[in-house]
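Researcher: Following up on the earlier apo prediction. This time include the ligand. It's 2-acetamido-2-deoxy-beta-D-glucopyranose, with the SMILES given after the sequence.
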Amino acid sequence: MKAHVKTSLALGLALTSNIFLLGPSVLVGAQSISLDDIPSVNSSVVTNYVKARSEYIASEKEIRQDHAFRQKLSPVAIQANDIVAKIRQYEIDNVWRQPAPLGEEDSEMFAGMMFPKARATILETDLWKVVSRMPKGSLLHAHLSAMQPFDVMLQAVYDTEGMVISTSEALTTDIARDNAAITMRHVNTTVEAASVFLHEEGYVAETEIPFKQAAEAHPGGKDAFFAYLKSRLVLAPEESIRHDLGVDAIWRTFESLFGVSGNFLGYEPLLRTYYRNLLSGLVDDNISWVEIRHGWSPGLVPEGQEEDSPDLDFFWRVTVEEIARFQATEKGKDFWGVRFIWADLRGLNRTLIANNMINALEMKLAFPELISGYDLVQQEDLGAPLIELAPELIFFQEQASALNVTMPFFFHAGETLGDGNATDNNLFDALLFDSRRIGHGFSLHKHPQLLKDAIANHVMVEVCPISSEVLRLATDILHHPITAMINHGVATAISNDDASMMGQDAPGLSFDFYQVIQASDNLGLAGLGALAENSVTWSNFEDQGHLEWVKDIEAGVSGNGIKAMRLQQWHEQWESFCQWVVDEFGEQYS
Ligand SMILES: *[C@@H]1O[C@H](CO)[C@@H](O)[C@H](O)[C@H]1NC(C)=O
Ligand SMILES: *[C@@H]1O[C@H](CO)[C@@H](O)[C@H](O)[C@H]1NC(C)=O
Ligand SMILES: *[C@@H]1O[C@H](CO)[C@@H](O)[C@H](O)[C@H]1NC(C)=O
Ligand SMILES: *[C@@H]1O[C@H](CO)[C@@H](O)[C@H](O)[C@H]1NC(C)=O
Ligand SMILES: *[C@@H]1O[C@H](CO)[C@@H](O)[C@H](O)[C@H]1NC(C)=O
Ligand SMILES: *[C@@H]1O[C@H](CO)[C@@H](O)[C@H](O)[C@H]1NC(C)=O
Ligand SMILES: [Zn+2]
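Model: Understood. Below is the ligand-bound prediction.
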């Protein structure tokens, strides 16, 4: 600290010693110029300039996507917005702006810094209290196997009779520990107590060991075993901030996590535990509705058995049961519900994708309220671009229409650093195929025409801020294009993509909302409110043809369908939340 002060003092002295002051006036050419000629800040020439400048800034803000929402803020919401601006600024100055002492460079802090490094500090702020309490509306972009925090699931595996674990090699080296395939499953035969464990030289690949026993035999015991398994389920902070290694590298690790987390969705009692904790966690974060991406014909082992049910509907039946069960509880009674966007893997070959499309349509017929649309997932840069799948996508639309079912597209598109390559060009397909929303749209702001078309056609972008940070598209929230999109007038909402794998350790949206408000002085609480309102406006609550869908979006809160009703409910929550902000923080931050 001392050394810093010394340096800046020295610099200051050097600067002043170079300045020599002029007299009251100097002759420059034929002109006698005096500093007294500088107009007063209150002179009309300056005040006119300042006025024109303010009007210029205000007129640009009319283009913003949240402009209309801001125009309609209630007096309480305006007050809450002002208070939150003060909280944010106070914490930027007093919590975040922390120069690192010499020799401790890694402890440097600033507002909007990388999420993995900011997380612990976020939890200590008043802004966090505000954001976590806020009614968030809908979570529209999330992948089932990456939503529920894993501690609960590991404990559930531990507590479930008959669970065994095996690995594709002995966990004796760092490379093996980081890469071995891990299988957890239920068996109904008695597995003999093991004498050689996963971490030992003599372990024979794929030998199944009772999970409980494996946990206790692990060096360091159960806690160390869970910590190891979590390292195979969650992207480590030190890894996600290695921007020097690029996107493909982090995606390789990221995709390997799904192999491990898939285990929790494969056995009926675990799947039920997963849903119960997940839905309850979403409500804890004041989320009212969720649209989950999942698909590719998930198999499920019924309770007490060890083979997937031959019944393809089984997974979805359990899903429907758990949603209904939750909504019948006290905690779930105001929760609006869940729908699923069928998601195929874009890395599969075209025959398999077409095959799965037929599965998707079958499931749509069997579960018309649950299954709501279609998407392709996995790393967009490496999988088939949408243009290559155009024949299959057209086939899908034709079959859906022949079956008289509504299965609109909700494509991931433009989740890339590219410009003009196949991934970036997926955005054109998303708009041409009438995708109702775009997942990520990270490269959208580079396309003037597409920005216009997204606005004109009411296509909303599901922005996943922390996901983009952790997957190395943006170093931190300050480098994220979400502000550009909002400022250009594109409708956006905040989603969390893969919260439990991204180090959030919570299924909700609060961390993403926190990052976003930190990214911009233009946004504020009102901006977050508009983002939450958008999530409700663009929720796919019911099957609708394209025209009805657009009509309801345009009508918004004054429409007469389910959407308008949900928007009214959200507005009531928003007003009482704003009142809470005023009551709770008004005095302290007046
Ligand atoms: C300019 O006007 C403001 C407001 O009337 C006043 O507070 C301020 O002292 C004035 N400044 C100067 C330099 O006259
Ligand atoms: C054990 O699992 C097999 C295969 O799923 C099944 O056929 C059998 O009925 C199960 N046995 C018991 C006792 O549940
Ligand atoms: C697609 O993949 C499946 C499974 O790997 C394989 O059986 C099939 O031959 C492949 N089809 C084509 C056209 O490559
Ligand atoms: C298609 O389904 C809608 C309801 O989803 C129904 O009103 C309509 O009659 C159906 N049309 C045909 C041709 O089956
Ligand atoms: C597009 O460009 C980005 C940035 O160079 C790259 O990461 C990505 O892999 C590219 N996608 C394709 C399909 O080449
Ligand atoms: C949001 O969550 C808090 C804490 O769980 C709760 O007290 C509050 O009533 C919730 N607000 C809304 C609008 O649901
Ligand atoms: Zn996604």
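Model: Residues 311 and 445 are 45 Å apart (CA to CA).
Researcher: Noted. I'll compare it with the apo version next.
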